[in-house]
Amino acid sequence: MISFIIWDASPEIFTIPEFFGLGPFPVRWYGLLFAAGFLIGQQIMIHIFKKEGKPLEDIDSLTLYMVLSTVIGARVGHFLFYEPEVLFRNPLEVILPPYAGLASHGAIIGIITGLLLYSRSRAASGQTFLWVADRMVITVALAGAFIRFGNLMNSEIVGRPTDVSWGFIFMKNLEFRQIPRHPAQLYESISCFILFFVLLWIWNRYKAATPRGLMVGVFFVWVFTLRFFYEFLKENQEAFEDNYALNMGQILSIPAVLLGVYFIVRSRQHRIQQPVHNR
């Protein structure tokens, strides 16, 4: 007899009661995990800055750039890739609640933009774009793991029907709770956790000698190659995707993988071109 996992977890941790005519305010796992990605990521960057002798006073500025660029990029990306008609009809929806749509591809574009702006005035301290980006992807991988687990707690971004024994029945998802489905959110979360430890190992081995762009390339190839294949196990996010052989997540992942390959090749060439000193 095949058994399945009944997933009936509440997306809310607790509710702050109404006071002074405001509220009540639910505190959700997704929001907590989203914030934890930034808070823990900041501590990781502090450790890296200390080890490599970078100015710690830059951490707060870097964190601010990352928070704003991630949220804005994810919001704009959602409307641009999945609901462009809303973006052009009413651009204010990007900043107005409820914040129901966040696109990971948009977040990556936002992060790249934020890092370009941050590093532009800090080259003198060695914080070039690739130096910062190589280290920032360590924290982005961890944040991705947290966010995908938050999706699991929300019973959203569910997988397609399956008969595997680890299939989840998402009781809180009224649209898809009838039959077992792939826990696609969990697949992606675990993949990001593994990537986090791989990138941390690469940095810990090489530190300042890490070939520029290597970890960025590994991040892009790992995340978006797996994302391409995971999408075959997931329900499409928007109805228009049902008309195409590949959905939007897969289409956007292809150039991301190619960009990752470029960075890896570039990093190897950079390492080869380093001057050799006679001892």
Descriptive notes:
The chain is mostly helical and 279 residues long. The chain has one domain (27-236, 248-271). Helix content is 57%, strand content 5%. It has helices spanning 29-51, 59-82, 84-89, 104-119, 129-153, 184-206, 214-230, 248-272; strands at 5-7, 12-16, 25-28, 168-170. A two-stranded parallel ribbon has the order 1-4. It has a two-stranded antiparallel ribbon with strand order 2-3. Strand 2 (12-16) and strand 3 (25-28) form a beta hairpin. Helix 5 (129-153) runs antiparallel to helix 6 (184-206). It is globular. Residues 272-279 have low confidence and may be disordered. InterPro entries: Lgt. Pfam families: LGT. The chain crosses the membrane at residues 29-49, 61-82, 94-117, 129-149, 184-202, 214-233, 245-265. A 1,2-diacyl-sn-glycero-3-phospho-(1'-sn-glycerol) binds at residue 148.
Summary keywords:
single chain, 279 residues, mainly alpha, two-stranded parallel ribbon, two-stranded antiparallel sheet, 4 strands, 57% helix, disordered C terminus
The profile of the biggest β sheet is: 2 strands, parallel
Q: What structural category arises from helix and sheet content?
A: mainly alpha
Q: Strand content of the residues, in percent?
A: 5-15%
Query: How many whole angstroms does the radius of gyration measure?
Result: 20 Å
Please give the count of helices.
8
Shape, please?
Answer: globular
Strand order of the largest sheet: 1-4
Global mean pLDDT? 90
Unreliable stretches: 272-279
Tally of extended strands?
Answer: 4
Q: Could you give the order of the helices and strands?
A: EEEHHHHHEHHH
- Overall structural domain count: 1
Distance from N terminus to C terminus (CA atoms, Å) equals 68 Å
Percent in helix: 55-70%
